[in-house]
Design goal:
single chain, alpha+beta, Aminopeptidase, six-stranded mixed sheet, 20 strands
Length: about 700
């Protein structure tokens, strides 16, 4: 409670600009839906004629349509300096009407596996456009080598051919026979994923290490597992035995091999492929492994990279391992974790992807590992590494794994990876497979990141029924819902939740159709592309936690936050502040899904302050959405929600949007890394 904000003046809405008012005009171009004239809408007779001909009318405007700077400004364009209470119970709720619906027809889902020809054309177009914009942006990529066994590989891909095929593709990705064979054998049964789309987008990515390799799982894609798996039950005494093993190492150093087999800092000192050792690799998008040390024959100490331009935030890992033996339990110790506790102590497992399994038709990230423990170790941070502060302790995540195949190529990760290239290719596929007559979709670039990567901004709503005045007025007056995700790169679960959100919003589901007709969705699906690309856990390239920069973001150091906040300022200035604002996150120490919101009264009550209800009035509408979710969403838990405003959170998106934009329903949505402890998604261990 000591961290709770008790100053009522600081808790009240303070709509004060952090930039010159004239700067807001630039964000008009990011709201093309407010000035679009919908010339592409045809009369009913023309539409019927096109349907009879078997053709589908497409929007005449490009998908990246941005109105010119000379377009007429919105008549309400000004900065409104009202507080939440002065504006009434909720900005955007006034004159809010639900359009009438006809539920007689159900449209067939438009998603089908993308045919290879269109896929290849689109991928080539994307690659060419990337090269046209900036030749330095496009670069050659190589798919990581496949498993070694040539006989197995030949049987897998060329059962009727006698030509020899190398199991290790090299050179340019485009000309690789192996990649061609892979693409020919890809089943195309992974919804909303295409390897060719992925390659086209990955070529354009800018990274600090200048990645040249593609990780197989991101290229190939993955399917959900065919079954639900209960959380891991830890055997009694496992952690004690692990700690005793660590002590035994110190008192019997002669038993320790101590050989470095992978080192990003000094590659010449590594001995990859040394007899009797695993081979590690992590120089690919979102990868993170700095060093691997062989301790015993089947045990390795692993060290993670800190975030770029930082000396902390060691938590996210994602790396490749190969040359394993079959049915042997390998022990891995990640020895420089920083969080004081983890769901790894309470049933969480890491995830593993097997290339051999994928090529046999089972491309899946699966929960893996046993004897998993997370505990404080004997290592501590030096004064230099700790920024002059000595004594910060490290923690060990230890787990054992039996790999499913001999000499396989496997990938291990903290959580299901979701790369920047995955997101960009996903957006292209969604755009191509939506129904343009039903779904209004605009993808724009919010800004360039510090690393030179575009940060996409999406607008999704329903197309107006016609060009009639009433239909267009209903379209222009729809309230806004503002969604964003992945400000913290290591919280990949936030991207998976966003992926599901996007797929639902453009679907033919009647509820999705109703939502589109009721709201305009502004979405920033990845706020920290640079952090995701470079395998960071918490920060951007500036070394800053971007969710602590919302009070005074820098346009140079924190461009995605600066321009997202600018867009929200602009919406408020024209009287269109969002009805709902939600920032998607992942939570490492709790189960289920829950929301954090903002309440003056609940904060003061929790802090033990006397609240004069005659002076302090508050609309309790901020509780409506969590209560609805608690009733309809099986993974959601109302009891885990909190509406307290803490001093240490005053610079987060949730609090700043609540205070400065006057958005009553401003939330952070937290999704667990682990699983659900109740309800439909709780998986119990089967009885023997």
């Amino acid at each position: 409670d000591y961290d709770l904000e008790t100053d009522v003046n600081k808790l009240r809405s303070r709509p004060v600009l952090d930039r010159p008012e004239e700067e807001l005009g630039q964000y008009e171009a990011m709201c093309p839906e407010l000035s679009h004239n919908f010339q592409e809408l045809e009369s009913e007779s023309e539409e019927d004629k096109s349907l009879e001909d078997g053709t589908e009318s497409l929007p005449s405007t490009p998908s990246h349509f941005i109105p010119s700077a000379t377009s007429v400004k919105h008549p309400n364009y000004r900065w409104r300096k009202q507080s939440v209470t002065e504006m009434g119970p909720d900005p955007g709720e006034k004159d809010f009407k639900v359009p009438q619906q006809s539920w007689t027809k159900k449209e067939k889902c438009r998603w089908d596996p993308i045919d290879e020809n269109r896929d290849a054309v689109k991928a080539a177009q994307d690659a060419d456009s990337c090269e046209g914009e900036d030749p330095a942006r496009s670069h050659t990529l190589t798919l990581r080598p496949l498993p070694k066994e040539a006989a197995w590989y030949k049987k897998m891909f060329n059962p009727e051919r006698e030509t020899s095929v190398s199991p290790s593709p090299g050179g340019r990705l485009e000309s690789s026979d192996t990649v061609t064979n892979l693409l020919e054998n890809h089943q195309g049964d992974i919804p909303f994923h295409s390897p060719r789309f992925y390659v086209a987008k990955a070529k354009c990515v800018k990274s600090i290490p200048d990645y040249k390799d593609l990780a197989f799982p991101d290229f190939w894609g993955h399917q959900p597992p065919p079954y639900s798996k209960p959380m891991l039950e830890r055997k009694y005494g496992v952690q004690r035995n692990k700690v005793l093993d660590d002590v035994r190492r110190l008192i019997q150093p002669g038993d320790v091999i101590g050989r470095t087999v992978f080192d990003l800092d000094e590659p010449s000192h590594s001995s990859p492929g040394a007899p009797g050792s695993l081979t590690f690799f992590s120089k690919f998008e979102s990868g993170n492994l700095r060093k691997a040390i062989q301790v015993r024959e089947f045990e390795y100490d692993l060290i993670m990279n800190a975030d770029v331009n930082s000396n902390q935030h060691h938590q996210w890992f994602y790396f490749e391992v190969r040359d394993m033996k079959l049915a042997v339990p390998y022990r891995f110790n990640i020895i420089n974790c920083e969080k004081f506790n983890s769901q790894f102590n309470y049933g969480m497992q890491l995830v593993m992807y097997s290339v051999k399994e994928a090529l046999q038709g089972r491309p899946r990230w699966l929960r893996a590992g046993h004897d998993i423990c997370y505990y404080k170790n004997h290592y501590s941070c030096s004064v230099a590494a700790g920024g002059g502060v000595r004594g910060r302790c490290y923690y060990t995540l230890t787990f054992s794994i039996k790999f499913p195949h001999k000499d396989d190529v496997c990938y291990l990760a903290y959580h299901y990876p979701y790369t920047y290239s995955t997101m960009m290719s996903h957006l292209d596929i969604l755009e191509q497979n939506r129904n343009p007559k039903k779904v209004y979709w605009r993808q724009q670039t919010l800004c360039q990141t510090l690393g030179g990567n575009p940060c996409p901004l999406l607008t999704i709503t329903a197309m107006p029924d016609s060009k009639k005045r009433d239909d267009l007025e209903q379209f222009y007056n729809r309230p806004y819902v503002f969604l964003m995700a992945r400000v913290h790169p290591g919280e990949s679960n936030a991207s998976w939740v966003m992926k599901g959100t996007l797929e639902f919003l453009v679907s033919s589901d009647p509820i999705a159709d109703l939502l589109r007709k009721c709201f305009i969705f502004k979405i920033v699906p990845m706020l920290n592309p640079d952090g995701v690309i470079n395998g960071s856990h918490r920060c951007s390239l500036s070394g800053d936690d971007l969710n602590r920069q919302w009070l005074t973001p820098s346009s140079q150091l924190h461009p995605t936050i600066y321009h997202t906040k600018g867009l929200l300022y602009y919406l408020r200035s024209i009287g269109r502040a969002p009805l709902v604002f939600c920032d998607y996150h992942g939570h490492s120490q709790k189960k289920n899904v829950f929301l954090y919101g903002c309440s003056i009264k609940e904060t003061l009550w929790q802090a033990g302050c006397v609240v004069d209800t005659a002076v302090i009035t508050e609309d309790v509408g901020y509780r409506t959405l969590p209560k609805i979710l608690d009733k309809v969403a099986p993974a959601f838990v109302m009891n885990s929600c909190s509406f307290l405003v803490e001093k240490s959170r005053e610079s987060t998106a949730r609090v700043v949007v609540w205070k400065e934009m006057g958005v009553l329903r401003s939330y952070t949505m937290e999704s667990t890394y682990c699983g659900c402890s109740h309800g439909l998604y709780k998986v119990s261990k089967p009885f023997k």
